[in-house]
Amino acid sequence: SVEYLYVEFLPQFITEDKIKEVKEYLGKGKKLIVVMGLQSSNDFIREVAINTTCTKANFENAVKILHKYDFIPSAFLMIKPPFVLECEAVDDTCTSLEYLSSLGVTHSTLCPTRVAPGTVLEKIYTRGMYQPVWAQTVIEVLKRNHDKNGSRPMVNTSELKAYMNEDSVCAHMPHDDSDKIIKNLE
C-alpha cells in the first residue's frame, strides 16, 4: 500500500540486476528512493578528508541505473568535513549540489558534521584542529542553492540538536537562537 520505499545503499553495490529485481518486486506505480553517501563531489575531500569508499564513477553508475528504472537517486552531503575551512565548506557543498543536479539528482540531504566520541575527528577536535560547522554556514549553503537547477536539499537537523547528540559536539549556533534556527531549517 506504499507509494515510496526509502532505502540507504552504497552506490558500489547497486547493480542493474538488483534494481531490476526490486522493480519487479515492487510492481507498477511504486517508487524506490535510494540515498547514497556521496558526501562531496570533490575527489580530494571525499578520498582524503573523509576517507569514504564511494567513488564518483560508482555513484554516477548507480544514478544511471536508478534513472533507467524510474527510481529516485538521492545523496547525503557532508557539510564541513575534517580539514575543510568554513568558507571552503560552503563552496564544496554548493559545488556538490551543482554536480548532483548535473546528474539529475534533485533530492539530497545536507549533513552538518558533528564530532562523535571515539572517532578520528574527536581526536582532531580535542587537539584544537577542527571546529564543527557554524549554523550560518548551513544557512548560507541553502541561500546560495535556492531555486538552482531544480535541487531541493533537506538538512538533517538531528545533527544540529545537542539534546539528541549529548555525547557529541554539534554545529555552533548562537545559544539563544538555536531552537529558532533549527525550527526554520525544518
Summarize this entry quickly.
The protein is of the alpha/beta class and 186 residues long. It has 7 helices and 5 strands.
Which descriptors would you attach to this protein?
40% helix; 186 residues; 5-stranded parallel sheet; globular; alpha/beta
Write the layout of secondary structure elements.
Layout: E1 4-8, H1 16-26, E2 31-39, H2 43-50, H3 56-68, E3 72-79, H4 86-102, E4 107-112, H5 120-126, H6 135-145, E5 152-155, H7 178-185
Parallel strand pairs: 1-2, 2-3, 3-4, 4-5
Helix pairs in contact: 4-6
Overall description:
The chain has helices at 16-26, 43-50, 56-68, 86-102, 120-126, 135-145, 178-185; strands spanning 4-8, 31-39, 72-79, 107-112, 152-155. It has a 5-stranded parallel beta sheet. The chain is of the alpha/beta class and 186 residues long. It has 7 helices and 5 strands; from the N terminus they run βαβααβαβααβα. The chain starts with a strand and ends with a helix. α4 runs parallel beside α6.
